[in-house]
Design goal:
Blueprint: H1 8-21, H2 33-39, H3 44-54, H4 59-64, H5 67-81
Length: 82
């Protein structure tokens, strides 16, 4: 499995920023990459909130794998955000 070189918080924040600024989503910029590079940090708190919500897996996620591993992985992502 590939492993990303950027943090989970950064990747989530970039997705949120892209949705806000890109004309492919809710924004109006047809080429939003440079703008996302400029503003993604403003969405870090949103990304952390999403990860905090994900700390407890739902029934489907719990059935698919090891809950303890899930909790450690999300915990590590949150610890890296501090």
């Amino acid at each position: 499995m590939p492993v990303a070189s950027t943090s989970l918080v950064e990747r989530i924040a970039r997705v949120i920023a892209g949705r806000v600024v890109s004309s492919n989503a809710d924004g109006d910029d047809p080429s939003a990459g440079p703008k996302v590079d400029e503003v993604w940090q403003f969405y870090r708190d949103d990304a952390v909130s999403i990860l905090k919500t994900m700390r407890e897996p739902d029934d489907a996620a719990a059935a698919a794998g090891d809950v303890a591993v899930w909790e450690r992985m999300i915990g590590a992502a949150l610890a890296g955000a501090r």
